Write the structure tokens for this entry.
Amino acid sequence: MEEIVHPLRLVSARRVITMTAADTAGAADGSGPQALVCLGERIVAVGGREELAARFPGAAHVDYGDGVIVPGLNDAHMHPSMVAEDALHLDLSPDMVASPEALAAALHAQAARTPQGAWIRASRYDHTKTTGGRVIDRRDLDEICPDHPVLVIHIACHWAVANSAALAAGGLTDDSADPPGGGLGRDPAGHLNGILYEQALFDYAVASMAHGGAPVVPESGPDDRRRALGQVLTSFNAAGITSAGDLLAGPTDIEMYQAAQRHGPLPVRLNLMVAYPHLDALRRLGLRSGFGDARLRFNGIKAFVDGAIGGGTALLAEPYEGRPHDHGQQVIGNRELGDLVRAVHAADTRIAVHANGDQAIRLLLDAYEQAHDTYPRPHLRHRIEHCTVVTDDIVRRIKRLDAVVVPFGSYVGFHGDKLPGWYGEQRLERMFAHRWLLDAGITVAGASDYPCAPFEPLLGIQSCVTRTTADGEVLGGGQRITAREALWLYTVGAAEASDEAAVKGRLAPGYLADFTVLGDDPLTVAPHTIAAVPVLATWVGGEQVWSSDTSHPGGPR
């Protein structure tokens, strides 16, 4: 049998931020670590450059000069499998289409290259940035694309717009009832206007959640999805991401990830939260959180209580600004939620539940408290995804439960322009409440929810530190945190969210050799420039998987 040789590598830079006490000890006099040594997938030493060079004279030396090494950036909540499918279709994000005319032109062009009668699927449409706050409807799409069924998915991924052909393909008519957990938009006369909310959208475009297991809009072929996934993961590496959570995986997504892994190690470590309709199948197999390996791992079950903050459908205790009778949308009944949480909890598996509004969070906390009372599992820390609008009492209840909270990182920076009009300045003081949550001693993870917001972690870190919108307005300034605390979210906090803090999130002996090399120090640059700090290289498992130096895209330089 051929012997496997693991190379010994010494990687150095101006500074190594370890997220351990070593950072503080050397901060005052600049004597902190400047290097680390990797053997295979693990770190074996961290310290001074000359010290480690003397201890490991045979190590291959990779020096990044004035760069700064941080633990690999970890996005605890995003949707890589969804993005892989979206990458094969039309992108209507504000960067691509900034006006109604540009949107129509993009759809026209897509129709011209699509066979008549075939589906046109588009994603990341933002009505506030592209169509001036007006939501397009079925008649708009009928006029633009009369010869194709069309589905345009909103950037929040909780509603979409379908044209008449698409509605017919799904068997929807004016007489159709709202599906459980979803809704069908209607005009004042009661006719379908083409808007599909929550489960109605999932039935069309989200295989992991679709009733019957197959969405109305067919998924792309497995080989195409796998190749698109490779491009998506490379883009994550370019942003310094070494680990991520896929928070809505289903059977075809798991097949895609396994196929990708057969073609070589995944360049991003992935934790999968499987959509709750598949709970019974997982229980029959006896799978629990943690099954898998260091690259691809089952982490638990994903479910929903309410709608989207960025779509204006979160479930609020007080109504939306200017909408006195609108409290948002609850997508699961109280009894069904309690039964689901108890079932997952009894199976000794973690559950991550999407709950944005304060009323949604209260309902979820009720279910978590009842599950823990019925089946005490002190080791089992469930998650609250987004946990956007909080109160003092909500924070206290979360702390008592020792739950993990995964708020949006970049929403103030990216979606801030629309938030005051929906939620008001006063409520914004208790939204994305990183300061309150950290001060309470709650475990908080960094997350983008991509494709609902940009995936770049440095943008999320900047947004948490500055609480400043793209237009320069400060929203909820009392929730600002320090740069080190924000980096903690995307390293240690995200590792705790997947129960991997013993091997991820810090740079220390025994930890995975996952790290990101930056062109400057995110802890000392001006806060409003953190997002502009360049990523020089990304390492996963002791191997360089991405480099800004195109002449050396991988491996030691």
Summary: The CA atoms of residues 319 and 449 lie 24 Å apart.
